[in-house]
User: What shape does this take?
Amino acid sequence: MLRAPRGRTERLAAAAVAAAAGWMMIQTVAVLGRLAVRLWPLLLLLAAMGLGYGLWRWRRAARARRARAGTLARLHITVAEFDTMNDRQFEQALCDVLIRDGWRARQVGRAGDQGADVIAEHPVLGRLVVQAKHTTTAAKVGSPVLYQLNGTAGPVHRADLAAVITNGSLTRDAQLWGERHRIYWVDRDRLR
Assistant: This one.
């Protein structure tokens, strides 16, 4: 661990070390400058190659984004297809549907996600937090899911909007509570 110099001798030694380090830095910069003057064509070539590689990567990523956007534009998922998915696939499908519909979305659901499975941004509507509940057809999502989302959407995820989306249904209490507290919900019928 470093400590401040104590006494005149240590301060003089520290000043000498600092002066030597400064002199070495100046000499290093001078040598690099002379090398750059002599090797400028090589440096220019390397810079051009780096720029070319960066442009190639950018164009490749742009083509991939366009291809994905084209695929998502044709995206149509039936409720029966939602039913065959597992939880992660359901979250990713909801993310894809949001992207198709003009949102910038990402899947974030995992253990400890604090009520957020998908977070989406829209230039007009703001930030949306989605809690996805993949269930069996007969299962119902209850009010506690909406309570949790209401408690975390704004404070934790800085959301303007919050929604619970399920391929099942919600209890009547959950529906009423959601409407009263502006937690949007999409059940099997609305998902269709």
Q: What stands out?
A: The chain has a mean pLDDT of 89. The two ends are 65 Å apart (CA to CA).
